[in-house]
Amino acid sequence: GATLGVMGGGQLGRMFVHAAQAMGYFTAVLDPDPASPAGLVAHYHVDTGYLDEQGLAQLMQRSAAITTEFENVPAAALVTLGAHRPVAPGAEAVAVCQDRAEEKALFVRAGVPCAPHARIETEAELAAVPDSLLPGILKTARLGYDGKGQVRVADRAALAAAWGQLKQVPCVLEAMLPLALEISVVVARSAFDEVVQLPVQQNLHRDGILAVTQVPAPDASPALQQQASDCAAALARALGYVGVLCVEFFVLQDGRLVANEMAPRPHNSGHWSIDGSDVSQFELQVRTLTGLPLVAPRQHSPSVMLNLLGDLWFPQGASAAEVTPPWAKVLALPGVHLHLYGKASARPGRKMGHLTVTAASAAEARDVALQAAALLGLPAF
Ligand code: ATP
Ligand code: MG
Ligand code: MG
Fold first, then answer.
1. pLDDT 10s digits, 130-170
2. pTM across the whole model
3. Would the CATH topology of 116-175 be identical to that of 179-376?
4. Which of 72, 250, 257, 269 to mutate to test the pocket of ligand 1 (most atoms within 8 A of CB)?
5. Domain covering 3-87: architecture
6. Which of 178, 201, 275, 360 meets the CB 3.0–4.6 Å disulfide criterion with 356?
């Protein structure tokens, strides 16, 4: 088979490699860490040069087609690779997803509702933001993740302080919205304009980090789910996107749907699809990259995903001790699928793995997931 290349060696790259290998492809991973989660399982690990010319040249030499698992790969690198190899997603679409201001402009263009917001690049723009955006959240336009690079601001004084603290322009100020719940949709679009989706995913965050995903979404009405799916498809088409795209949404307390942000790659909230769907988000990534047909994924099992953060390895805040969580007990529960990413050391907040519970009913999946959470010392949901 041909070799598929991926930029970035994290857990998303690792799960892409698993899917690609299952379909008979060889794989090459570009990551500076010689023990990266994806590099450990790929056929070729390009760990020299990373995103410089040398690294890109080596990846290109190995690969028939190239994708990315890393949200912030410089658009220039995708342009360089795209001149010689099929690259999905493309540089332009990735550039939009990397910039909250451009992302919001796309939402508006595509007729997808989003939070009231203002782009702030200068002191004058800072002074000119309308009162209606306060209280709000000031976010750096670029490079934020897991709630990093954003500050909640109650009033103008706090806004000015946050602006000084973030020290990055441009920023986007968003009105603080009254959330009822958070959902996301994974959509895949092929070069031939085939669009398929995973069902709507309901997400619970703790400390700005995804903690639990439930599919089907227990609290989103069918009409709302349809609207979210339609929005995700519209955004993929508006971007001319080829690949896997995740769109995060808020559901407001008054029932309205609001798009939050997009990720130009498979997403943590779609990990359940490895075990609960007959086509996973990573298989969709392989298919879009290689021009294979897209077929609609079919969820065969209600699923609950729990993220396994590094905190599990530091019970009760113990600092130096790295322990092994009670996997055997958790795996004695029915329908538990454990995924560990092969990261050498745990840090609190670091994504070390996840587990997905599949069951015959949503109630049973939730019940078993709560038992697993209790065994691991994770909060109930
Ligand atoms: P990710 O790791 O998903 O990329 P991120 O750092 O890009 O996260 P956002 O998704 O923008 O951050 O925001 C993180 C969380 O903060 C959201 O999931 C939501 O819970 C909350 N949040 C963000 N924006 C708003 C808003 N305008 N109103 C209310 N809550 C918000
Ligand atoms: Mg984000
Ligand atoms: Mg987010």
1. 999 999 999 999 988 888 889 999 999 999 999 998 888 89
2. 0.96
3. no
4. 250
5. 3-Layer(aba) Sandwich (3.40)
6. 275
Q: Output the six-digit token pair for 160.
A: 């000015």
- Predicted complex ipTM: 0.97
How remote is the CA of residue 323 from the centroid of ligand 2, in Å? Answer: 30
Sorted by where each begins, the domain ranges of the chain are 3-87, 116-175, 179-376
Q: Does the annotation flag 204 for ligand binding?
A: no
The response to whether 139 counts as a known ligand-binding position is yes
> Is residue 54 marked as binding?
no
Tell me the C-alpha distance between 340 and 344, whole Å.
11
* Residue (of 35, 14, 27) closest to 268 by Cα position: 14
Q: Does 111 count as an annotated binding residue?
A: no
Which protein residue has the closest C-alpha to ligand 1 atom 25?
176
| Smallest CA separation from ligand 1 atom 21, residue | 208
Cβ pair 78, 90 in contact under 8 A:
yes
Residue 66's φ and ψ, nearest 5 degrees, are -135, 140
Supply the residue whose CA is at minimum distance from atom 5 of ligand 1.
145
The ligand 1 atom at the shortest distance from the C-alpha of residue 71 is 4
Q: Which residues line ligand 1 (CB under 6 A)?
A: 115, 137, 139, 144-148, 174, 176-177, 179, 182, 205, 208, 248, 260-261
**Class of 116-175 per CATH?**
alpha beta
CB 16 within 8 A of CB 287: no
Domain 179-376: CATH superfamily is ATP-grasp fold, B domain (3.30.470.20)
pLDDT of residue 48: 76
Q: Are 101 and 92 in contact (CB under 8 A)?
A: no
